[in-house]
Amino acid sequence: MIIRPAQAGDATAIAEITNAIIRETLITFTTIERSLDSIASDINARGAAYLVAEVERQVLGFATYGPFRSGPGYSQSREHSVQLSPKARNQGAGRALMTALEDVARSEGVHVLVAGISSANPGAVAFHAALGFEITGQMPEVGFKWGKRLDLVLMQKILAQD
Questions:
Q1: In this predicted structure, what is the pLDDT of residue 162?
Q2: Which listed site, 46, 56, 68, 146, has its alpha carbon 20 to 30 Å from 105?
Q3: CA 39 to CA 82: how far, in whole Å?
Q4: CB distance 53 to 97 below 8 Å
């Protein structure tokens, strides 16, 4: 397995992964599928902070981060996303992506990575806990999808001590 920076040409594979998750699961609260152009734009804008896991030239997952909240007081905090195709789950791709993403974040001066996780995805809570993230809050019923009200579990990891 290779972990490498995403390229605009990876947008199709990334769209297949993320749009299936949007269509078929409660892992994300969004119902709007991502376009190839929007994904390619994110890849270009985020640079080293957009990684893919590749096996035999096939993208099986990705991890990236973006702003946590607006304003200069949050400039050292980022919210991340890590998503895998079904065939990549439980194969170490998620851990490899997150380890590499944390390294990128540290090199870019990020102090805290935040995870916003759907309560319908307890596996992601366990995954993040195994990586050293801690639950810092739960926001009841802030998500709504498929007629269901869902909680948002907030987790964070402090990457470096000042």
A1: 58
A2: 56
A3: 14
A4: yes
Return the structure tokens found at 32.
Answer: 């709007």
Report pLDDT digits (tens) over 35-69: 999 999 999 999 999 999 999 999 999 999 999 99
In sequence order, which residues have a C-beta less than 8 Å from that of residue 159 and are 6 or more positions away?
102, 105, 106, 110, 111, 112, 113
DSSP states of the chain as a string?
-EEEE--GGGHHHHHHHHHHHHHH-SSSS--SPPPHHHHHHHHHHHGGGEEEEEETTEEEEEEEEEESSSSGGGTTEEEEEEEE-GGGTTTTHHHHHHHHHHHHHHHTT--EEEEEEETT-HHHHHHHHHTT-EEEEEEEEEEEETTEEEEEEEEEEE----
Note the pTM of the prediction, 2 decimals: 0.93
CATH architecture of 2-158: 3-Layer(aba) Sandwich (3.40)
